[in-house]
Amino acid sequence: MASFASFTAPSAARTAAYPKTPQLSAATKPPTHISHHYSSPAGHRRRTRQPLHITCDSTAPNNTPVPDNHSPTSRRDLLLGLGAGATTALTLDPFSAALARPVRGPSIEACVRATAGDQTFACCPPSFAGVDIQDFQLPSASEPVRIRRPAHLAGLDPVWLDKYKRAIKAMRCLPNDDPRSYVQQARVHCAYCNGAYVQADDTNKGLQIHYSWLFLPFHRYYIYFYERILGKLIDDPTFALPFWNWDHEDGMPIADMFKDTESPLYDPLRNPAHQLPTSLLDLDYNKRQPAVRTKDEQVRVNYAVVYNNMVSGAKRRLEFFGAKYRTGSAVPVRQSSGSCENLHNPAHIWVGDSSRALGEDMGNFYSSGRDPLFYVHHGNVDRLWNVWKTIGKFRFDFDDYDYLNASFLFYDENAKPVRVKVKDCLDNKLMRYDYEERPLPWRNFQKTPASSATVANIFGGEKAANAAEAPAVELTPLTEFPLALDSVVSVSVARPKKSRSAAEKEAQSEVLVVYGIELQGDKVVKFDVVVNDDPANPSGPDKFEYAGSFLNVPHDSMKFATNLRLDITDLVGDIGADDDDELVVTLVPRVADGPVTIAGVRIELQN
Ligand code: C2O
Question: What residues does the 2'-(S-cysteinyl)-histidine (Cys-His) crosslink join (predicted)?
Fold first, then answer.
């Protein structure tokens, strides 16, 4: 098994190895001349759709057309030297009480170039040196509430659409060193996600806002400021972003306004095959082996994925929000993403251009903020956070001190740096924005049993007629873990308690934990988890036997370890396994752009 000894959070050595990205002042910055979208080193961009040209008003002071002018330099040599001599041992539970402090991230002065694949990228914000960082204040209660509407419906309103396009164009036309510019807004995500930052209170530790409870609040603030900047640029305090309503059949395609190649909302770095009028987002996307489904089948699968991640698989906070992440936590240990994050991951891979090594734009966190769709996608994630809190018991925000006081830095609509705390974003109405109410067609989704006769024969059920002929599932003993997940693997896992009463089930969830998932951060890896299922014909998301999926969206180049937590309380009842001592858990690799190792599988009861 690969050792993690050489992969650690950014250390002092690393900070020294990477000189701070020079921040040019407006006066010294050479004018950027851009004749085409992204001067990219990859060079094999598809030409099937016309590149975007933005013409900025030359009489306006801010007339530099954007997209970005990154010229990534290969710094592979430095990357390889990254962790030399590091000794931090990775454990899967680094959150000891002694370390309990809120993440106060990041240290801007220690910002370094971000990594993706074997390249590095300039993603640090303009320097805060000498600038007073203000604490965030909620907007005044007299401000109008911005109402976010579904993109596919909002786009039918020509007045609003014109505002949105004008605002994005104005953002693209701001000079690149304005923190509100298109380039700088995209860099916010890059810096927080691709290894540019260290934690302000522990500069030996990197900062990562995915794979933990920081995921929802970070992205809420991110699009909050982005929306207010857009409103400010067109002088409209009511301006609201749309959201990509992919949890409703009508909202599953990319909305037309983003596909118009002449529009500032267009981004050429997308998978062209997914911008056809008939393409529906696949929330169970397997990249090179996309499932062939009819429209109705795709809608059903998407509803099932939403149901699994919002309802049955995330009855409690830890499974929905993700792991508790405090200052001192080593960043290569991303303890676990929540189902809110798992639900949102496939859209990144599906939208990005998979013919590019790094999957730009949406398919890598370093570049995803360059696509206007990113903010619209995250609008829906943000909306579903609210929805989750309304659909069952135990569905509250964390009230942990270290959650409420975790903080981030953003530039506001006036280009002033502000420090925000999680506790101020838990009620979006106080932030003066809200969502138009939408039906939740997935809310009472009815899953069905796997149809395979093998399943019935081996695991019981009405169809168990030919039990004698059924091939046995080949089990890998848990003692053979850790193992490389390069083929389908089934293990028998003991349950902490069987035959639980309804009251016991309500008091404690039964949670399946695939732990010690080790992979390279910049690789797409996806595997599905099914229970008591036929390994030769594993079930999809709409079946009882399907528990969930792991999917890594490429980000920084570090190796890391994480866990997948899936609530299987309902699943166990659905498959008739309440009285079983053990469950057969099958891991099904679906995408492997890099190796993945699994340390083990266990079942826990959780309050
Ligand atoms: Cu920070 Cu959708 O990712």
Answer: 193-210
The pLDDT assigned to 58 comes to: 55
Sign of dihedral through CA atoms 528, 534, 539, 545? negative
Can 219 be counted among the known catalytic residues? yes
Residue 250 Cα to chain centre, angstroms: 23
Cα of 186 to ligand 1 centre, how many Å?
11
pLDDT at 49: 65
Higher pLDDT, 533 or 455: 533
Q: Mind listing the pLDDT tens digit for each residue in 175-201? A: 999 999 999 999 999 999 998 998 888
Tell me the C-alpha distance between 362 and 364, whole Å.
Answer: 6
Tokens of 406: 């975790």
Catalytic residue status for 37? no
Q: Which residues contact 142 (CB under 8 A, 6 or more apart)?
A: none
Dist. CA 212 → ligand 1 center (Å): 12
Q: Residues forming the annotated binding site for Cu cation?
A: 189, 210, 219, 344, 348, 378
C-beta 555 within 6 A of ligand 1: no
Inform me whether the pLDDT recorded for 570 exceeds 80. yes
CA–CA gap between residue 10 and residue 331 (Å, rounded) = 9
- Rounded Cα distance, 164 and 157, in Å: 11
pLDDT tens-digit profile of 451-499? Answer: 887 887 788 755 445 545 556 789 999 999 999 999 999 999 999 999 9
Q: What is the pLDDT at residue 382?
A: 98
Sign of CA dihedral 39, 40, 44, 47: negative
Catalytic residue among 70, 348, 377, 555: 348
Lowest mean pLDDT among 67-71, 128-132, 313-317, 380-384: 67-71
Q: Which tokens hold the place of 88?
A: 């931090």
Contact present, 493 and 583 (Cβ < 8 Å): yes
Distance from residue 459's CA to the centre of ligand 1 (Å): 39
Which backbone phi and psi does 486 adopt, to 5 degrees? Answer: -110, 5
Q: Is residue 210 annotated as part of the catalytic site, yes or no?
A: yes
* Residue 320 contacts residue 340 (beta carbons within 8 Å): yes
Please state the pTM of the whole predicted model: 0.86
- From the CB of 348, is ligand 1 less than 6 Å away? yes
Contacts of 50-56 with C-beta under 8 Å, sequence gap 24+, read: 50/261, 50/268, 51/261, 51/268, 52/261, 52/262, 52/264, 52/266, 52/267, 52/268, 54/169, 54/172, 54/173, 54/264, 56/169, 56/172, 56/173
* Active site annotation includes 378: yes
- pLDDT for 466 equals 52
Whether residue 193 has its Cβ less than 6 Å from ligand 1: yes
Pairing status of strand 509-520 against strand 596-598? antiparallel
In ligand 1, the atom with minimum distance to the C-alpha of 222 is: 1
